[in-house]
Amino acid sequence: ELKEDTVVVVLGASGDLAKKKTFPALFGLYRNAYLPKDVKIIGYARTKMDHEEFLKRVKSYIKTPTKDIEQSLEQFCKMCTYVSGQYDKDESFNELEKHMQEIEKGQKETNRIFYMALPPSVFIPVSEHLKRCCYPKSGIARIIIEKPFGKDLGSSRELDRALRPNWTEDEIFRIDHYLGKEMVKNILILRFGNEFFGATWNRNHIDNVQITFKEPFGTEGRGGYFDEFGIIRDVMQNHLLQVLTLLAMERPISFSAEDIRDEKVRVLRGMPSIEPKNVIIGQYEKSLDGTKPGYKEDDTVPKESRCPTFASMVLYIKNERWDGVPFILKAGKALNEQKTEVRIQYKDVTSGIFKDIPRNELVMRVQPNESVYIKMNSKLPGLSMQTVVTELDLTYRRRFSDLKIPEANFVRDDELDASWRMFTPLLHYLDDNKEIIPMGYPYGSRGPAVLDDFTASYGYKFSDAS
Ligand code: BG6
């Protein structure tokens, strides 16, 4: 929760992240009264522009479908100002300091939050300049960073070492915006607040767990960043792994952030590094109808790129609860639809009276259209004893009329370390072995052709009803 008398500085205020996530999220918090009234927001970036131009940009980042939202946006803009400056010069940060002091005149405290919507190459110099020139004399200071937190275990630790002389762990917030998604937070309540899930949440009843992330668009101009990282670093090592740890962890002592993180780290420590034999990778090609370009046709992507835009991999947890249960992660760009979901597939019911009836599944649809549903066998109404798959369906939009969904949450340093440890051998193996070429799949398809055989080989059984 933000204290009163807080200044939020968004560094990189003219970039893609600020446009797509940071400003819309700040505005969402403002609209839902989660921001103290006297909060001030300062945009900082290299682009030279005046205050009016900056506000015009902020307004263009945010959709205003109603008059009411348009008016709130006007009010929100009154809290925003802009400073342009470099990321590597004390003079620039001294300017920022001066601007903050102006704004903070008359305040009891000076609480400052620095949100780094910046490319990783400038994280370290900016964090040093901020400490030197802009650290508040009283009140709290926080520095918020977004992934990529390095590219592997070594570079992640290097980043951490570089931040440490200036910022304590309490001051550093590593954001993972998936942790703020409503359905991701709901995992804990579903699991620990319902006896019937709690009792079956283990290797005796669950056959496999699938976590799927699909996007219907390619890199579209973001290829420069993406090509250096690839889909595994972009969404799997962070967002999907975070979802996995919430699904797999033991019951925390409380819902406090620290207690939850303690349990998450324990799960990660019980996970061996991912074996290349449990991984497939793909890269999208031109769509079948020829209208959408292949990954390598993006001008920002090197022509010989081996970067995966799709991956599916199986992870295991070596503990009493999960030993032997495959956690199947799937993620890809330029696929047939937008969908993030968790699918828990239960084991087959004992045979005998039934022949091959579908398995129970618990599905948590993270986005779009949040919902939780259970696929359940029922008797087809009528004289026979025929079974039919039915759904117990909780669709949020139908059940909750007023959805207020803020987005954000944070990852602790030891969690980050443990997750990189698990992914690093695989990432190095893929980077170093030039003969490993991702499998092609058409833009707009479900992914590489081998995908269904791959998931089936780990026990997943496809049944018609989604
Ligand atoms: C970001 C990735 O972290 O998450 C993007 O860098 C991805 O590649 C995005 O598109 C997805 O976020 P959301 O909230 O739109 O699902």
How would you describe this structure in keywords?
binds 6-O-phosphono-beta-D-glucopyranose, single chain, alpha/beta, 466 residues, G6P_DH, 16 strands, oxidoreductase, Glucose-6-phosphate 1-dehydrogenase, seven-stranded mixed β-sheet
Task: Give an overview of the whole structure.
Pfam families: G6PD_C, G6PD_N. It catalyses: D-glucose 6-phosphate + NADP(+) = 6-phospho-D-glucono-1,5-lactone + NADPH + H(+). This is Glucose-6-phosphate 1-dehydrogenase. Pathway: Carbohydrate degradation; pentose phosphate pathway; D-ribulose 5-phosphate from D-glucose 6-phosphate (oxidative stage): step 1/3. This protein has helices at 16-31, 51-61, 67-77, 90-104, 123-134, 153-163, 182-192, 195-198, 223-248, 257-269, 396-399, 413-432, 451-456, and strands at 6-11, 40-45, 80-84, 111-116, 141-146, 172-175, 206-214, 279-285, 310-315, 327-332, 339-346, 361-367, 371-379, 387-395, 410-411, 439-442. The chain contains 13 helices and 16 strands. The chain is globular, with a radius of gyration of 24 Å. The strands form 2 sheets. Strands 14-13-12-11-7-10-9-8-16 form a 9-stranded mixed sheet. With 466 residues, the protein is an alpha/beta fold. 6-O-phosphono-beta-D-glucopyranose binds at residues 177, 215, 234-235.
Summarize the structure in short.
The protein has 13 helices and 16 strands. The protein is α/β, with parallel strands linked by helices and 466 residues long.
